[in-house]
Amino acid sequence: MIKILIADDQELIRQSLMIILDNVEDFQVTDCVADGIEVMNSVKKEKPDVILMDIRMPKMDGVVCTQRIKELYPDIKIIILTTFDDDEYVFNALKFGASGYLLKGISMKELSDAIRKVYNGTAMINEDIASKVVRLFSRMAQSNLAIQVDSSLADSLKPHEWDVVILVGRGLSNKEISAKLNLSEGTVRNTLSSILSKLQLRDRTQVAIWAVQTGTANRPLSR
User: Fold this and answer.
1) In this predicted structure, what is the pLDDT of residue 86?
2) Is 63 exposed, middle or buried (0-12, 13-18, 19+ CB in 10 A)?
3) Backbone region of residue 103 per phi and psi (left: phi > 0; alpha: psi in -120 to 50; beta: other values)
4) What is the DSSP letter of 83?
5) pLDDT value, residue 53
6) What is the Cα–Cα distance from 131 to 121, expressed in whole angstroms?
7) Complete edge-to-edge strand list for the sheet that includes strand 2-7
């Protein structure tokens, strides 16, 4: 059962999402809240697996809330769900650890599929803004907003760890990586944890961004 927290300042959207998602067999909506402060309080109490987070909420917006949630509860997955596709929001939501960024116009099947994929470790970006994100990544190397990894830290990675970085950068889930590299999912998870520790990064989204901005995602595998 995937526990879901819905955060949106529009009551109609909150209630509609709750009714629809609560009727999905493997979903359980733990709470519906209207602002970032309520998100923090609800997360502390309910410990959801996935948060559907609106960007523009009162008291604390979705980007700041995402940053604080990921600092305190790094295992909670966050999908930014919004009508806005502003460049700054797209970048900051991903930079601070969001696992997905989807526009509210998507179908409920697309949303349900995205929730499951994010829950299982895959980053999800709506096709309508994917090209925008790619352009952002291409500019990040010349920007002070780029995710920085000291070269000495990168040099500490072993060949099999580089393979995982490459595949994370290509958007593969742990399950897909395990199949590609003929490893167990547990081994992939442990390897990713080692990579995060060595590179001093917070989560797989930062690894993916770093892999794309440095061109690592385009490198051939060692095996």
Assistant:
1) 61
2) buried
3) beta
4) S
5) 94
6) 22
7) 27-33, 2-7, 50-53, 77-82, 100-103, 124-125
Q: Are strands 100-103 and 77-82 parallel, antiparallel or unpaired?
A: parallel
CATH domain 2-138 topology: Rossmann fold (3.40.50)
Instruction: Decide yes or no: CATH 3.50.50.60 for domain 151-218.
Output: no
Which residues on neighbouring strands pair with residue 51, listed in sequence order? 5, 78
The token pair that represents 30 in the structure block = 């733990």
DSSP string, 39-55: HHHHHHHH--SEEEE-S
Residue ranges, the chain, pLDDT below 50: 141-142, 144
**Phi, then psi, of 28 in degrees rounded to 5:** -140, 115
HSE, side-chain direction, 13 A CA sphere, residue 201: 26
Could you check whether 2-138 and 151-218 share the same CATH topology? no
Could you tell me the two tokens for 37? Answer: 């402060």
Sign of CA dihedral 56, 97, 173, 137: positive
Any bridge partners for residue 124, and if so which? 100
13 contacts: CB under 8 Å, gap ≥ 6: 54, 104
Q: What are the boundaries of each domain within the chain?
A: 2-138, 151-218
Q: Which of 181, 191, 183 is nearest to 223 (CA)?
A: 181
Q: Is 191 strand, coil or helix?
A: helix
Considering Cα of 106, then 3, then 67, then 170, what sign does the dihedral take? negative
